[in-house]
Structures are given as C-alpha cells and as structure tokens.
Amino acid sequence: MTSPAVKRSIRRHLIVLACYSVLLAASLWFSYELRFDFKMDPVWVLPRQHQMLWLVPLELFFLYCFGQFRGFLSYFRLPDLFQLTWALGCSSGCIFLVWLVLNYCLHQNVAPTGSTIIVNFLLSTIALSVFRVILRNYREGRRLKSPNGVALAQRRVAIVGAGEVGSAVVADLLAKRGLGLKPVAFFDDNESKHGHDIHGVPVVGTPDDMSAARNVYDFDQIIIALPSSAHRRMLDVVSKAKHLGLETEIMPSMWELASGRVQASQIRPVELQDLLGREPVSLDSAHIEEMLRGRVVLVTGAGGSIGAELCRQIANRAPKQLILVDHSEVQLFLIEQELVSLGHGSLILPLVATILDSDRVGWILRTYQPEIIFHAAAHKHVPMMEHQPVEALKNNTVGTHRLAQLASENKVSKFVFISTDKAVNPTSVMGCSKRLAEIAVQSLQQAPGNVTQFCAVRFGNVLGSSGSVIPTFKRQIADGGPVTVTHPDVTRYFMTIPESVGLVLQSATQAHGGEIFVLDMGQPIKIVDVARQLIELSGFRPDVDIEIKFVGLRPGEKLFEELQHGGEQYKDTTHKRISRFVCQPATLAQVEEWMRQLNAYLVPGERDTVKKFLTTIVPEYKPFLE
Questions:
Q1: 463, 273 contact by CB (below 8 A)
Q2: CA distance linking residue 242 with residue 109, whole number of Å
Q3: Partners of residue 546 on adjacent β-strands
C-alpha cells in the first residue's frame, strides 16, 4: 500500500510535469511565431507539431537531471535560476546538434531552425522563471496574511550601513516577507552612495539625518549593519535611535554570514560586545582542525560557560570522540542536549565526575584514553571564594594537580589548563589558587617519562559567562537600579566567549610544553563605562533614570589586572593575538612538597591561616585577611 508521503510526492511531480510541459510547449509555439513575425510559413506548421512530441520531453529530461523536479515550485532563488538555465541550455545544445545533422546536412525539418532554437531557449527560460517567481510571490503573500485572510502588519525598518552586510540583510528581508519587516531606507556615511538604490531601497543620507528622514519614510525600527570596528559610530547611532524612540537591532557580522552560521535576516538586539570596538579574531582553522580531527578529546567543566563553548567548537571539527566531564548533572545535561540537537550525538559522551575523585578520573582516562584534555573546571567567583579559600584551593589547585598527574601517567598528548589574568600578582585566593595550579602544571613537564605537553592559557573577564558583571548589571537595570560599581577607576579586560575559546584552541596548536599563553584582550575597559553603556542600551539615561552607585572594592579585588609575572619572559607566537611567556619552572620535588604541606592546611573554616601559608609559596600574593 502506497504511503501518504509517497502519494504526495507523486502528485507534486505530476503537477510540476504538467506545468512545465504546458509552458515549454507554449514557448516553442511562440518561438515559431516570432521567427516568422506571426505569419507562419505553411511548410513549418506540421513540423512544429511533430517537434513538440520529442522536443518538450527532451527539455523535461534535462530539467529532471538538473534537479528541477525535486524542489517546490514556490521556492525559487538564484541557484534555482542557474540550474534551470543550465538545463534548458543543455537541451537547446542537443536540439542544435539535431538541427545541424538532420536539417542543415540532410535537409529534413526534424528540428526547429537555428534562430527558432535560440528564441525558444530564451522564451522557455523566461517563462519558467516568471512562473516560479509568481508562485513564490503568491506563497510569500499568503504568509503576510492571518488564517482569516486579513493582511498582517509589516514593520518599516531603516538600515544603517549600505555595504555588503546591509545589502545582504535587505535582500534576505525582501525574500522573506513573512518575517514582517519591510526595508524602506538606507543610511550611510559615504556620501557617494546617497541618491542610489540598493535592491530598490534608497540610500537617503547619513545616520545624522534619521530624524528628518523618519517623517518621509515612516520607519519605527533601525537595523545596524556597520563593521565591528565602527564601535564609536555604532554607539552614536544607538544613542540617536533611542532619543527618537526607535527600536534598535544589529546584524550578524560578515564573518558569521560568510561561514553560514547565521542568515542575514537573523537580526538581534544590540549587545555590549558590539560596542567594544574589537576586531573579529582570525583563527588558523586548518591547524586547529588538524589538531582535533580524529582525536579523542576530553573537556572538564563541560557544563560551564567556557567548557560548553569549547565543546561546541571542538565538536564542529570532527573529533573521534568528545568526552564531556562535569560534576553538575544539570549543566552537563544542558550542553549534551544542545550538542545532540546540533547533530553531534554520535560523538559525545557525557560523564558526571569531579576532578577531586582521582579514582573516577583515572578510570575515565584509562577507559577512554583521551589524547587531548582541556581543563576548564574551576571555582572562579572571587568574593565567594575569598570567604572559603579551602574550597578554591581544593578544586582549582589540588584538583588540577591531580588531574595533570593522571594525564601524564596515562600519556595524554596535550593538556591545556584554562587560567586567568587574576593569577598574576594575585590579591584574591581565587587568583592565587590558579597561580599555584599554573606552577604545578608547569612542573609536571619535567616529570620522568612524561610525554604530555602541558600549557596554560590566561585571559580576563568573559562577556556573558556565569557570574560575570554583565548579567549582574542587566538584572539591576531591570529592577530599576541602582547599578553597583565597586570603584570609579576599576578596569578589566573583556572578551566574548567564542573569541576566548577560539584563541584557546589556537594556543593549543602552538604548545610544545611548559608555556603560559596570554590572549590579547585589547585595551582594559572601565567598569563604570560598561555600566553606562548597558544603561543606555536599555533605553535609560545613566544617573538620571538609573543611578550608578559606587560601593567600594570587595575583598580580593584589584583596581586593574596584569598580564605578566616578573620572572616570565615574553616570546612571540605565530598568531598576533597570542603571547607566550616562559620561565624557569619550580622543580617537581618542590611542587610535591608544597602540595603535601597545602593538604595539611585544607581544614574547613581555616581562612587566614591558609592564606598566610600561601604567601610562602607565592610571595607576590597579597592576601585579604579578616
């Protein structure tokens, strides 16, 4: 018994066959009429009818070969036009060969005349294309109506930026009218573009002309399609749009469009990272893929912000297996389901484990034999860890040391430790615990029989990560303020999650063992400026609608972060956004003795005692004592 799906497919093919046959036959008929100026030569009346019997099936055959029967008639874009043109061009070529052999050489009227063949090719291409466009417009017109036939409202939008990205978004919005967005005007600072149209949408002036142009073009939304480097202009446009009461959204970057990650119509609200003025990071994807392809890769802290993004980017580079390790079942489940939905279900293995459980971790390494480990599991919240230093040290220092030892024992090829800029001249126990972990990992490079390449990667605050300042500010703004800032002069380095993880992977390709890589995070930014920009992006005025309140530095916090210890030497790398620091590592015996002593201090409730002990191992550590 034929299934309903098969029946629908057969019915669709028959409809396409019938429509194309009628249009192709009509094209041939009118080709002859045009050839003879609508005064048909009687000699060709009967041959024209006979020619339809083999010429139309021939054209249908080539259309089938070029996939024109597999798609829906109402979906028609440039690739479909190319395929249709090639199909009809090939069939016309075959007809021309028949004419050359039988008509021209043997004087038989089996095929149309040469000029008729050319006209038929043009008419049939136009006829089928126009037919498909009409069906597409009909389909899109139906999407603009509600089920009861009432036309749905379309929002009139203006595009700021008449470059490649702006052109792409307009083309996509015009092709997808069901999105309910109608582009009506462009704004661009390049005056040579003014007065011209792009896809039928006029370039009416600069963004400074928005107020006047709004009265003419009646738009209520702005879509920003400026390059990421134009952050100052972007902030100015956002400010002007907010003042005019216009909703403001932003386009994906040209890199995201070109990579196929997003489509031009996937606009989104303007976020803080759009205004940081950071150039898009350029990665050597070939070396990263070479490192990961066909390998078994393990990520600790896989449910966290950095760990999850590591999993996403690694999964896209065809590893043999990706092992996700996290102590939080809930977080692990979320990233597992996300990767499954992205089509990576066959290569991932989620495992609940804590890095402090050496027996469990050792079993995982022996059983699954990972070749590369990215260690992102950590306690990272500075004020919280300041009041429970034992937990920070157990997880960040002892746990990392034990994991690195097990990696060396199981001959893991590469071990990449995710560190922080807070490890440099630390004033917080979290930063000190990470610095101790760096020292421990470096020392294992010289362990007898070790074949593992150990390296650490430092970077600063990550926009959007759990516990970062941005979600806190957003929540405070949503509550009506105040937005609390610790100090008017406090600065921090910022990176986006995808950017930081991409550079971590790039650093891993350059590791030979014992290095600490530091990522170029641009210029440090004042936290108070971040607060002001977020308030403005939310449509409010700083210190007018939303108060900014200074509450003082919290325990363990610094005014500014540093990137390099005094004993570290700078070395170039092959990537301009990555620096490498090398130093004389502590001996293995020293580190093992420190770990033995540290374990004796890891007693719950002992805060100042353990902090004071840390200064004997990390002299540059300036602890906050209660």
A1: yes
A2: 72
A3: 542
